[in-house]
Amino acid sequence: MAKDKKQVEQITDMEVDFAKWYTDVCTKAELIDYSSVKGMFILRPYGYAIWENIQSTLDAMFKEKGHENVYLPMLIPESLLQKEKDHVEGFAPECAWVTVGGSEKLEERLCIRPTSETLFCEHFKNVIQSYRDLPKLYNQWCSVLRWEKTTRPFLRHREFLWQEGHTMHATAEEAIAETEQQLEVYANFCENVLAMPVVRGRKTDKEKFSGAEATYTVECMMHDKKALQGATSHYFGDGFAQAFDITFADKDNKLKNPHQTSWGLSTRIIGGVIMTHGDNKGLVLPPRIAPTQIVVIPVAMHKEGVIDAALGLVDRLKAAGYRVKADISDQSPGWKYAEYEMKGVPLRVEIGPKDIENNQCVMVRRDNGEKTFVSLDELEAMAGKLMDEVHVGLYEKAKKNLIENTFEAHSLEETKEIVEGKGGFVKTMWCGDLECELKMKEEAGVSSRCIPFEQEDLGEVCAICGKPAKKMVYWGVAY
Length: 479
Prior knowledge:
The protein is of the alpha+beta class. Helix content is 36%, strand content 27%. It is built from 15 helices and 23 strands. The protein has helices at 2-9, 18-28, 45-64, 78-81, 85-91, 117-127, 172-192, 239-243, 268-277, 306-319, 333-342, 353-357, 379-404, 412-421, 434-444; strands at residues 32-34, 41-43, 68-69, 75-77, 96-101, 104-112, 136-145, 159-169, 199-202, 214-221, 227-237, 248-249, 255-256, 259-266, 294-298, 324-326, 347-351, 360-365, 371-375, 406-408, 425-430, 447-452, 471-476. Helix 1 (2-9) packs parallel to helix 11 and helix 3 (45-64) packs across helix 7. The chain is globular, with a radius of gyration of 25 Å.
């Protein structure tokens, strides 16, 4: 048993050091490894399998809305990047440049894509001539490079995987509807697949995407009460189209600029899953993205028929469509329990000689450790039922954390007290001035997370300056 205990002791308690706990989970659950280039991480098979499940689920959701996948180059000529002033200024500090090709110095340096708006605009100019060519509903799965100063597994990589949607529309109304629709796709994905409750809202002008007219966001609360931006959706108006001279002949035969959107979600969301659901035993994965949804552990497997029975359960569960494996290695059952708890497998199935006699198995939920004796006649149905219960249990626990750690404040001083004493999200009224937003950052240490779609009337004046208030804002410390 010493070996089993050691396995669990390998991670720091989150209450002792949350940052160390997080890093321990990323490495001990075999999600990630470090490379020889600072800030560039290796996604190990288990970590990449989580991304593949996220990718396949989201990809289906995008295609259901009519989007098509494309792939554009990773290098952007500097002259192309310079065409949209606000956009290039926003990304300039994070750009990495290619200046030599083979052994020759390039005439024009090339940026390794931090995002692809400018490349898509160049392409759209070539393929859009008429209103009949619209809308263009494109999505790209790729990696991007941003030369971050400080990096952390999943949360901030220099190179990370993501999807970036890019669409063009004949009217502002259509483009705005697309922006809002895609934000709702992300919100549904977070809540119904990742079991992560979100706050839907619009970013302030200070926090919006470089070059956008409006940025919408889904904000999530982590276990340590900090905020994580889960995904964003941007409305660009026709600013990029004007800068890149993209026009189309409309039904009235007049040349017009189309209206543009972009939207994205990255591997950062895996960090969100870890920090929303994980515990001191390790990772806790929502069943709908878990690479292994069920692990079958034979107990007293040296006894005749036990391994065969375990493998028989695997065959049945696989045939029913579950992602399942058996561990018939020579490690002890205790070691295996700790190992698959560390890896966050949603459901553990145990079967031993007595279970075989009684035509039953034991199912153990990862989220709460609850054990259920299940007749083998009901194996497949009960596996599905319990996994649904795990999803609901994770969502409800995360929702409770969000609700109990969202507070109302009516002054800067009150906000500071809440942030220093409790953490979490703070809701206040706001006049809309940048000066007040900066003051909140400087004095209370929080940034605006979003102007939520679900507005509440918390009073008539701004909590910072006392002038008439325009909107309610969520504030918080963010990753």
